[in-house]
Every structure is written in C-alpha cells, then in structure tokens.
Design brief:
The protein has helices spanning 14-31, 38-57, 60-69, 73-86, 118-151; strands at residues 33-37, 95-102, 109-115. With 152 residues, it is of the alpha+beta class. Helix 1 crosses helix 2 and helix 2 packs antiparallel against helix 3.
C-alpha cells in the first residue's frame, strides 16, 4: 500500500524524475509558460509555487535554496527580481494548468502550465511594441515629407 506516499512517479527512476522536474520548473520560471503533458504539469505545479514563495521571502537562505533547485542563474535572477515582486501581495495560486487536448503522435493529453498574470504582461509588452512601431512609422513619414519638400 502507498499510504502517505504522495507525488508523481512519471514512469521514471529517481534521478531522471528529479532532472525532468528541475528542467520543467526552470523553463516555467524563465518563459512563464510551458506546454507539457497533464501529469507532468500537475507534478511541477507545487514546485513552481514553492519557488515563488521562496522569492517572496527574498532572504539569502531562500536564494540559495532556489539556486540549488533551478538550473540557470538567469532563472534565479528573474524569480527574485520580477516574480517575487509581482506575486508579493498574492496568497498562493500562482500557476494555472489549462488542458489543450490530445497529442497527435501518442495520444497523450497535453496542457499548458503558466504563471497567473503572464498573459497580461505579454499583452502589455505586445502593446508597447506595436506603439513603438507606430511612432517609428510616423517619424519616418514626417521625415520623408520634410525631405520631399526640400528636394523640390
């Protein structure tokens, strides 16, 4: 019997499972969303939430704990500088798992695991980028008009 033996085995031995979970958690923190299978998404959800909780504390000890688990220094930096402050007032529930459907090759059910609010950040970045492109086009148009007037 497996009483009080929580967690997901994911059909892997201990080393492969730990490596998989570390990589997925690092990717979620760096990219703010990952497409994977539903069991893997459910397995990494508490790990991602624990990392964000560490980032909210922002002590030397929590930084070292996060650095021991995450694979890249860039992920640790983003976790403590951006995500810790973004989720500072939120009391848990930092991730969302959205089911996508069945994968064509092997029929595995896929899901997106993403940080809550990342769609707002992404939309704001896209909006700022489009605004810059419009301003650049307007400036080029005015410069083109001024240059055309001087040639005549």
């Amino acid at each position: 019997m497996r009483h009080r033996r929580g967690g997901y085995k994911l059909k892997r031995d201990v080393g492969a499972r730990k490596a998989l979970l570390k990589t997925l958690v690092t990717n979620v923190i760096e990219n703010e969303r990952v497409i994977t299978t539903v069991p893997k998404a459910k397995a990494i959800k508490p790990l991602v939430e624990h990392m964000i909780t560490l980032a909210k504390r922002d002590t030397l000890h929590s930084r070292r704990q996060a650095a021991a688990f995450l694979e890249t220094p860039a992920a640790v930096k983003k976790l403590f500088e951006k995500l810790g402050t973004r989720f500072g007032q939120r009391q848990g529930g930092y991730t969302r798992v959205v089911r996508l459907g069945w994968r064509k090759g092997d029929g595995a059910e896929q899901a997106i695991i993403e940080l809550v609010g990342s769609e707002l950040v992404r939309r704001a970045a896209d909006r700022a980028k489009r605004r810059e492109e419009r301003l650049k086009a307007i400036r080029e148009g005015r410069e083109g008009e001024a240059g055309a007037g001087e040639e005549e």
